[in-house]
């Protein structure tokens, strides 16, 4: 039904507009007595083999919703009904900011991909906390944090620490995002020295607030092998708890979408099917060098159950979806979980 009826209708509307329209519909659905129970019955899949004990947390299954979809924690309860075992909110910044100018999200249907240059648009961390206080679902929530656009890199640490301090009681883990291509200068924080300092301070603060909340690093798929080796060293020397690979890419290689269309769209991070192979390569490389003690969450290019299985076999512990959720619909979560359970039985 989704791919035959709903997706064609959704794709007639600007991507960002339909995103928030669907948010309104889901919020309304959540207010109708009994409706979300029906949704849970349709889309959730439970099996003992799906449970994972990672980061000191119990995940009911390995499938989560990636950051960027529910930036402001508006639909934690509603989205959890679709079978996700964890939802990552954000990227959140200390102060509210509008993000980049519109239009800033574009579909590439020929490539089953999206390009976005949202620019950390969010209502600020304090606004998200109000919603997190009122959520009812026990779903695991990760807090993806970043710096405000107007904050210079030399003061970026203050923004990250502020987010950790105020979010700490309301999320289950933190994700340090220094890999978005849509905030000017942000990726410079991926360089070895500033990243080591940033992670050490964030981890130190999280340890100072009981109970400790794990800290993960989210990286870009555009890193070189040397940079990936630096990331491995940084994780080990700073005591970072795990890694999320990957964010969106600035590469446009191998796309079916005409160059004239891509030129008209302009800058932004690419997500979806074009990242499938590169994402798997990075997961495999990181697992070989990190060993088994560092959790890896795979995101990027997971469009089918076989894509998810490929990431898990390459060494990922958990997977997250975003673009696949948009192209394939909510049934993808259940399909992935059923495939994982069948593989393990």
TrEMBL record:
<feature type="binding site">
    <location>
        <position position="272"/>
    </location>
    <ligand>
        <name>FMN</name>
    </ligand>
</feature>
<feature type="binding site">
    <location>
        <position position="182"/>
    </location>
    <ligand>
        <name>substrate</name>
    </ligand>
</feature>
<dbReference type="GO" id="GO:0044205">
    <property type="term" value="P:'de novo' UMP biosynthetic process"/>
</dbReference>
<dbReference type="InterPro" id="IPR001295">
    <property type="entry name" value="Dihydroorotate_DH_CS"/>
</dbReference>
<comment type="function">
    <text>Catalyzes the conversion of dihydroorotate to orotate with quinone as electron acceptor.</text>
</comment>
<feature type="binding site">
    <location>
        <begin position="116"/>
        <end position="120"/>
    </location>
    <ligand>
        <name>substrate</name>
    </ligand>
</feature>
<keyword id="KW-1003">Cell membrane</keyword>
<feature type="binding site">
    <location>
        <begin position="322"/>
        <end position="323"/>
    </location>
    <ligand>
        <name>FMN</name>
    </ligand>
</feature>
<feature type="binding site">
    <location>
        <position position="177"/>
    </location>
    <ligand>
        <name>substrate</name>
    </ligand>
</feature>
<comment type="pathway">
    <text>Pyrimidine metabolism; UMP biosynthesis via de novo pathway; orotate from (S)-dihydroorotate (quinone route): step 1/1.</text>
</comment>
<keyword id="KW-0665">Pyrimidine biosynthesis</keyword>
<feature type="binding site">
    <location>
        <position position="144"/>
    </location>
    <ligand>
        <name>FMN</name>
    </ligand>
</feature>
<feature type="active site" description="Nucleophile">
    <location>
        <position position="180"/>
    </location>
</feature>
<protein>
    <recommendedName>
        <fullName>Dihydroorotate dehydrogenase (quinone)</fullName>
        <ecNumber>1.3.5.2</ecNumber>
    </recommendedName>
</protein>
<feature type="binding site">
    <location>
        <position position="301"/>
    </location>
    <ligand>
        <name>FMN</name>
    </ligand>
</feature>
<keyword id="KW-0560">Oxidoreductase</keyword>
<dbReference type="InterPro" id="IPR012135">
    <property type="entry name" value="Dihydroorotate_DH_1_2"/>
</dbReference>
<comment type="similarity">
    <text>Belongs to the dihydroorotate dehydrogenase family. Type 2 subfamily.</text>
</comment>
<keyword id="KW-0472">Membrane</keyword>
<dbReference type="InterPro" id="IPR005720">
    <property type="entry name" value="Dihydroorotate_DH_cat"/>
</dbReference>
<dbReference type="GO" id="GO:0005886">
    <property type="term" value="C:plasma membrane"/>
</dbReference>
<dbReference type="InterPro" id="IPR005719">
    <property type="entry name" value="Dihydroorotate_DH_2"/>
</dbReference>
<dbReference type="InterPro" id="IPR050074">
    <property type="entry name" value="DHO_dehydrogenase"/>
</dbReference>
<feature type="binding site">
    <location>
        <begin position="67"/>
        <end position="71"/>
    </location>
    <ligand>
        <name>FMN</name>
    </ligand>
</feature>
<dbReference type="GO" id="GO:0005737">
    <property type="term" value="C:cytoplasm"/>
</dbReference>
<dbReference type="InterPro" id="IPR013785">
    <property type="entry name" value="Aldolase_TIM"/>
</dbReference>
<feature type="domain" description="Dihydroorotate dehydrogenase catalytic">
    <location>
        <begin position="50"/>
        <end position="341"/>
    </location>
</feature>
<feature type="binding site">
    <location>
        <position position="177"/>
    </location>
    <ligand>
        <name>FMN</name>
    </ligand>
</feature>
<dbReference type="Pfam" id="PF01180">
    <property type="entry name" value="DHO_dh"/>
</dbReference>
<comment type="subunit">
    <text>Monomer.</text>
</comment>
<keyword id="KW-0288">FMN</keyword>
<dbReference type="GO" id="GO:0106430">
    <property type="term" value="F:dihydroorotate dehydrogenase (quinone) activity"/>
</dbReference>
<keyword id="KW-0285">Flavoprotein</keyword>
<feature type="binding site">
    <location>
        <begin position="247"/>
        <end position="248"/>
    </location>
    <ligand>
        <name>substrate</name>
    </ligand>
</feature>
<feature type="binding site">
    <location>
        <position position="71"/>
    </location>
    <ligand>
        <name>substrate</name>
    </ligand>
</feature>
<feature type="binding site">
    <location>
        <position position="91"/>
    </location>
    <ligand>
        <name>FMN</name>
    </ligand>
</feature>
<dbReference type="GO" id="GO:0006207">
    <property type="term" value="P:'de novo' pyrimidine nucleobase biosynthetic process"/>
</dbReference>
<feature type="binding site">
    <location>
        <position position="218"/>
    </location>
    <ligand>
        <name>FMN</name>
    </ligand>
</feature>
């Amino acid at each position: 039904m989704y791919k035959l009826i709903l997706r064609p209708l959704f794709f007639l509307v600007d991507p960002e507009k339909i995103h928030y329209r669907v948010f309104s519909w889901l919020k309304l659905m959540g207010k109708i007595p009994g409706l979300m129970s029906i949704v849970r019955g349709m889309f959730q899949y439970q099996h003992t083999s799906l449970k994972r004990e990672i980061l000191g947390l119990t995940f009911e299954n390995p499938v989560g919703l990636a950051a960027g979809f529910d930036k402001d924690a508006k639909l934690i309860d509603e989205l959890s009904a679709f079978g996700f075992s964890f939802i990552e909110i954000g990227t959140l910044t200390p102060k509210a900011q509008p993000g980049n100018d519109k239009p800033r999200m574009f579909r590439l249907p020929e490539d089953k991909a999206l390009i976005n240059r949202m620019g950390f648009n969010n209502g600020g961390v304090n606004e998200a906390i109000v919603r997190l206080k009122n959520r009812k679902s026990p779903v695991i929530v990760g807090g993806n944090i970043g710096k405000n656009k107007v904050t210079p890199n030399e003061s970026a640490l203050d923004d990250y620490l502020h987010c950790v301090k105020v979010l700490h009681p309301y999320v289950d883990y933190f994700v340090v995002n220094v890999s978005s291509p849509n905030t000017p200068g942000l990726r410079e924080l991926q360089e070895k020295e500033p990243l080591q300092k940033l992670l050490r301070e964030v981890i130190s603060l999280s340890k100072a607030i009981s109970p400790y909340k794990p800290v993960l690093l989210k990286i870009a798929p555009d890193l070189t092998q040397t940079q990936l080796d630096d990331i491995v060293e940084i994780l080990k020397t700073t005591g970072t708890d795990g890694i999320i690979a990957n964010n969106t890419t600035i590469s446009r290689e191998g796309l079916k979408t005409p160059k004239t269309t891509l030129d008209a769209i302009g800058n932004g991070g690419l997500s979806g099917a074009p990242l499938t192979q590169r994402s798997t390569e990075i997961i495999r490389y990181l697992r070989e060098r990190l060993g088994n003690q560092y959790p890896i969450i795979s995101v990027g290019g997971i469009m089918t159950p076989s894509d998810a299985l490929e990431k898990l076999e390459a060494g990922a512990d958990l997977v997250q979806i975003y673009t696949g959720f948009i192209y394939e619909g909510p049934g993808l979560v259940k399909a992935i979980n059923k495939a994982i359970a069948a593989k393990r039985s």
